[in-house]
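Problem 12. The chain below contains 134 residues. Write out its predicted structure in token notation.
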Amino acid sequence: MTLVQMQPRSANAHLVHRTVGDAMEAAGPQVCDDMTVEVALAVMASARAGHLLVCDEDGLCTGLVTQARLAAVRDSAAYTDQVRLRDLLGDRGPVTSPVTTMAEAEHAMRYRRLDALPVVDEQGSALGVLALAR
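Solution.
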């Protein structure tokens, strides 16, 4: 027989194993990466959303853009009305899995200075968004 030392369970023990899937919000508006910045800002305003999930031609999530980022791009000296969302994201923006722990996701978001992060499944389809609490 082996003795096992038991420790009292903390009231916050459930938070240690909490995953992104437990905390994510609904995906919200999704747009194609060939959309221009101006059109994306209009979609965002009409949806009353602070961010848009961006998908490629196959419907896979390539990242997330915020109203603040789009406004900064639009107000920059290098802006033209031909700038597309894919030009802002490059190959693929940061995303996370629903099985990632909240501690890992929060650390990554703070390190990268992100307010929101797309949550994707194994195939890359958007499931939701993880947003840091203010």
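Discussion. Helices lie at 13-16, 20-23, 37-47, 67-74, 85-89, 102-112. Students who got a different answer should revisit the alignment rule from Section 12.3.
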